[in-house]
Amino acid sequence: MGFTFTIITLIIALGLTWRYLGSYMAAVFEGRVHFLGFIETPIYRLLKTSPKQEQTWKRYAGALIIFSAVSIVFTYVILRIQGSLPLNPQHLGGVGQALSFNTASSFVTNTNWQNYGGETTMSYFSQIGALTVQQFVTPAVGIAVAIALVRGFSRRNSPTIGNFWVDITRCMLYILLPIAFVAGIIFVGQGAVETLAGTASIHDVLNGVTQTIPRGPIGFMEAIKQLGTNGGGFLNANSATTFENPTGLTNWLSIYLLLSIPFALTYTFGKMVGSVRHGTALLAAMVLLFGVWVGFTSYAEHQNNPAVAAAGIHSTVGNTEGKEVRFGDTSTALFGVSSTMTSTGSADAAYDSFTPIGGFGLLTGMMLGEVTPGGTGSGLYTILIYALIAVFIGGLMIGRTPEYLGKKIQAREVKLAGLGALVMPIAVLIFTAIAVSVGAGRLGPENAGPHGFTEILYALTSQGNNNGSAFGGLTGNTPFYNVIGAIDMLIGRFGIMIPALALGGTLAAKNVVPESLGTFKTDNTMFVGLTIGVIVIIGGLTFFPAIGLGPIVEQLSHGRFF
Amino acid sequence: MLIHLRRSLVMAVICLVLFGFVYALAGTGVSQLFFKYQADGSIGKNGSTLIGQNWSSPKWFHGRPDDTGPYAANLTTHSGGGDNPLVASGNTGESGATNLGPRSKTLKANTIALVSYWHSLGVNPTPDLVTTSGSGYDPDISQLDAIVQIPMVSKATGVAASVLHKLIVKETSGPELGFMGTAYIDVLQLNQALAKLEK
Q1: Beta-carbon pairs below 8 A across chains A and B
Q2: Which residue is closest to B52 within chain A, CA to CA?
Q3: ipTM (interface predicted TM)
Q4: pLDDT below 50 — which residues of chain B?
């Protein structure tokens, strides 16, 4: 009953957000929102730029790459020297080289993969100055790329696709900052911790227990962590801990926040290209796939855990291993699917202990390319890439030059879209193959049998998709996994962003072909089905053999334990 | 190229100040002003109601077995005994779960050990009471998890079962707004109420 209401309230809240946040975001990027102009204008002055200075796609991409490189260096240096920086009440030393490189790549690619336990590794300075900062910057960069690609469709004969600096500034100031601040207050009001006072020591006379409790500026990091589909929490156990995610209400809020921008961007897209129907078609493809995944994953988590059942305990409250009492089985599964299908990767439970089919739901949620609805910005630009492939296939079937929103989709566009769609699976599968082939990789998994393989596959899938969730049993803080994971994350981020920007550039330069009777419709049910087909077939064909060795074998091996 | 680099450096500093420190410090200021108790960790005289503790005596209601029985290695004796979330979960010093997979031999063996642990206390365990949590210090149990412990607590304390039952019902909170998450009982609050009752 509670779960039904959770779904209904989320649909209502997200529906309103889709409509109103969607049109608000369009207004922000069209330069019609100015209420923080007193901060915005000085930033442009310091950067010596202005909204009037437009960039070609190459300059846009250049700014993005160099800014990301500088961000990686900044993050890396802060982590290395945190021992000498202030705001370090636990007197934690500098972070090691490989781990700093992995973490810097992780936060700058919006992955937020964590090979460290926050409470014992990161000073408050690092959590705020290195990690929280990137949780604002990287969603803004992702959304900027999406908007630049959208401009490719909305503009005609234009050599430029916007100004990178203006786009990310507006996104952070007008979209991320206000929503995150309000959400942060709700998190803290519910019980999330927000203090700079260091650990607390307690002694309970009732049971003789003494505890040293880690604290920190957690609640506000939590808000931007979810809103920006970042996922990197302050504490090791992430959203499963009460200090990050204290109640069922904050759990609901987390799901709402992490889904809000990715879904709403489809409305922004529709509004900016002058056809909300096209945005709705993309939304429909996202929602249908998302709904199916929520359905079977929640069902799977409502079943018994095989190992617990084998010990003679039969559950009516689902698989409780690794889950928190206050969330319950189905809401935890909903959180998991929301988090993995959006590149967030936050976890309110131990995903490693999900049932085989539950874990399959999370893993394949990422393998579909993070488009249902995907990350902030990355979801939209990646599904647009899939939509172009769908248009191309549709065009082949009816024997006409394919068009999308009046733009002719020709050889160059199809090549770029194909590149964007294949980069992630290639990186994930090759790195997984390397990891299972070398000793350093095989040392990683905690669990034996097919589950051990799934732990490796999950880690490299998660990093290649910039998701950041984990089957936590894998020991990732080794030089091997730190370096291979960092490369996987960088390829997964920039290997798709650059083709997306190139697409934006070449499309913006084209004129619009008037619609005729023979034009292949791209805003109807048929096209939604075609797009879903492309997403499922690309994901399914590339990953099926790997999934077969992991969760499918695990599910089918009845009565066997490893 | 150089202009990109100069702008990147300036932007990185702006972000560090504005979206790092101004955001986090303003957030901390507002939180400390309006929600001081929560922002400091919901800590009362017996500890934080948000951090589970190890209750081993049959005189008290027990929480999830995050540091009990086969998971006792997670419990590190500290001055005066007791557990420590900083060194919970396999003594790695971090919050975290066991991460045992659904077809793990270890998970099966641990669960069997926990079932007999509860049977030795006269409790017929529920799923929550033989499985560990995601954080490694779940402070809550469900109403049923508390009810099955009534015989144990009643026998050890002499408080009548019906009184304990009423106490459990009274201490049940959530789900928030009636549907968000599930109903739960904070073990520390329940035991504090029990201690008050015994006085």
Answers
A1: 413
A2: A242
A3: 0.95
A4: 77-82, 87-92
Q: Is the CB of B108 inside 8 Å of chain A's CB atoms? A: yes
Residues of B in contact with A210 (CB under 8 A): 78-82, 84
Residue A484 CA to residue A519 CA, distance in Å, equals 45
Burial of A136 (0-12, 13-18, 19+ CB in 10 A): buried
Q: Angle at CA A255, nearest 5°, toward A249 and A261?
A: 130
Q: What integer is the mean pLDDT of A422-437?
A: 97
- pLDDT-derived band of residue A53, with 50, 70 and 90 as boundaries? very high
Is a pLDDT exceeding 60 seen at residue A168? yes
> Tokens 């490693």 correspond to what residue?
A352
Residue A497 in contact with residue A145, Cβ under 8 Å? yes
Picking from A188, A248, A354, the nearest residue to B181 by CB comes out as: A248
Contact B16 A129 (CB under 8 A): yes
pTM of the model: 0.96
Give the pLDDT confidence of A224-274 residue by residue, as tens digits.
999 999 999 999 999 999 999 999 999 999 999 999 999 999 999 999 999
Going from N- to C-terminal start, the domains of chain B cover 2-39, 43-198
Beta-bridge partner residues of A407: A404
Distance from C-alpha of B164 to C-alpha of B122, rounded to nearest angstrom: 16
Question: Long-range contacts of range B73-82, CB-CB < 8 Å, 24 or more positions apart?
Answer: B74/B136, B78/A210, B78/A211, B78/A212, B79/A210, B80/A203, B80/A208, B80/A210, B81/A208, B81/A209, B81/A210, B82/A203, B82/A204, B82/A207, B82/A208, B82/A209, B82/A210, B82/A211, B82/B53, B82/B54
Residue of A207, A238, A297, A315 to mutate, interface with B, max B Cβ within 10 Å: A207
